[in-house]
Amino acid sequence: MSVELERVLVGREAIAVRVAELADELGAELDAEAERRGERAELVLVPVLTGAMIFVADLIRELERRMRIEVVRASSYHGTATRSSGSVALSEIPGDLAGCDVVLVDDILDSGRTLGALQAAIGEQRPRSLRTCVLLRKDVERAVHADCDLVGFDIPDEFVVGYGLDYDGLHRNLPDIGVLAAEAR
Ligand code: IMP
Ligand code: MG
């Protein structure tokens, strides 16, 4: 365990196993979708930066198929806050998702504001299908409804860092996910 963490919630081995399972589940859903429609649409993964960076890097290498990757950037936490600010700033949404099978990928579902806003914005582009895959889902009451088709782990309502998740821009590089030690803040 890294010295920055007070407690590990999801360790690196469990993450690796689950990411491979998520890739298998997603691949099977996309195959079923193609079978149903009699044709395969272009697959586009849309990771939400910066938090989903490490998750998506591992996920796409387990998902052996042709895909395009189009990043979006969203931020709802500012600086040293450990609660969502209530407003979400989104970058420009990639403009060529019409007719594609789109998979929105984020690190964590918390209040639902980020994924809710992104699902609405991407939906306006008329993708053939839109799925959302999150590594973590926090056990909180959502401010905004957001659909999640694939979830890695359900976690309690604690502020976590590691494997892409940050506190004030730091600790994203920790290989395990856990609760930050008070001295590391
Ligand atoms: P939401 O819009 O409240 O659902 O927040 C989602 C975003 O907030 C995620 O994409 C994360 O970047 C960030 N976030 C939520 N909870 C945590 C946490 O426990 N640690 C670090 N970042 C978090
Ligand atoms: Mg984020």
Task: Describe the protein in words.
By secondary structure, this protein is α/β, with parallel strands linked by helices. It has helices at 12-37, 53-62, 113-123, and strands at 5-10, 43-49, 68-69, 72-75, 89-90, 101-109, 129-138, 150-155, 160-161, 177-180. The strands form two sheets. Strands 2, 3, 4, 5, 6, 7 and 8 form a seven-stranded mixed β-sheet that branches. Helix 3 links the parallel strand 6 and strand 7 (129-138). Helix 1 (12-37) packs across helix 2 (53-62). It is globular. The mean pLDDT is 94. Bound molecules: inosinic acid and magnesium ion (MG). The site of magnesium ion has 4 residues, from loops.
Brief overview:
With 185 residues, the protein is of the alpha/beta class.
Describe the structure using short key phrases.
single chain; binds magnesium ion; seven-stranded mixed beta sheet; alpha/beta; three-stranded antiparallel beta sheet; globular; 185 residues; binds inosinic acid; 3 helices
CA-atom Rg in angstroms: 16 Å
Terminal-residue CA separation: 17 Å
* Number of distinct helices: 3
Element-by-element helix/strand order: EHEHEEEEHEEEE
Number of strands: 10
Sketch the major β-sheet: 7 strands, mixed
Low-confidence stretches: none
**Percent in helix:** 25-40%
**Tertiary shape:** globular
Q: Which structural class do the helices and strands define?
A: alpha/beta
| Mean of all residue-level pLDDT scores | 94
Bound molecules: inosinic acid, magnesium ion
